[in-house]
Amino acid sequence: MSDETNTSAAGADIAAQAQFTIQKIYVKDLSFEAPGAPMVFNEQGNPDLNLNLGQKVGKLADDIYEVVLSINLTCKLGDKTVYIVELEQAGIFGLAGFDERNLDFMLGTYCPNVLFPYARQLVSDLIQAGGFPPFFLQPINFEAIYAESLRRRAEQLKAGSVAAPAAGNA
């Protein structure tokens, strides 16, 4: 029984040592274009919206990381581009005391979740300032995106390990 107590106490100590801090949140790059303005304001129809998300992680120093959430939103009416929004919302985060798996999880899910509300507000404000109706990015499940990326990584590793012996035999 004392072993169980010591084990859970050790786990609590490790968890207590992990620290997450937000050091800075900022816009790294921003672009808004309305190439068809002002004529596009007279166009009627259902807009076609194409949203692309991306994420980059860079290590700045020991336990200090920059996470960049990129959003590229294009709105079209037929073959005419109504507007284009390109945004890189970034943050500098301190992550200390995490094991490799939890560090990867924090950088892949928690940090983008912190950045997303800033990006959503900025995208909405830009579109409205461009003379268009407000657009609100819907919530994004970064955990599902992360799980999909883990699945793809596992497939690539599996394909790489299967392909490597086959290439060696050829």
Structure in words:
This protein has a single domain (18-157), classed as Roll (Bacterial Protein-export protein SecB). Helix content is 44%, strand content 35%. The protein contains 3 helices and 4 strands; from the N terminus they run H-E-E-E-E-H-H. It has helices at residues 2-17, 100-129, 142-169; strands at residues 19-33, 48-61, 64-77, 80-96. The longest helix has 30 residues, at 100-129. It is elongated. The termini are far apart. 12% of the residues are buried.
Concise summary:
The protein contains three helices and four strands.
Number of helices: 3
Superfamily (CATH H level) name: SecB-like
Q: Which value, in Å, is the CA radius of gyration?
A: 22 Å
Tell me what portion of residues adopts beta-strand conformation.
35-45%
- Taken from the alpha-carbon principal axes, the silhouette is elongated
Biggest sheet, strands in spatial order?
1-4-3-2
Give the distance, in angstroms, between the N- and C-terminal Cα atoms.
57 Å
The residue fraction in helices comes out at 40-55%
- CATH architecture identity: Roll
Break the fold down into its secondary structure elements and pairings.
Blueprint: H1 2-17, E1 19-33, E2 48-61, E3 64-77, E4 80-96, H2 100-129, H3 142-169
Antiparallel strand pairs: 1-4, 2-3, 3-4
Helix pairs in contact: 2-3
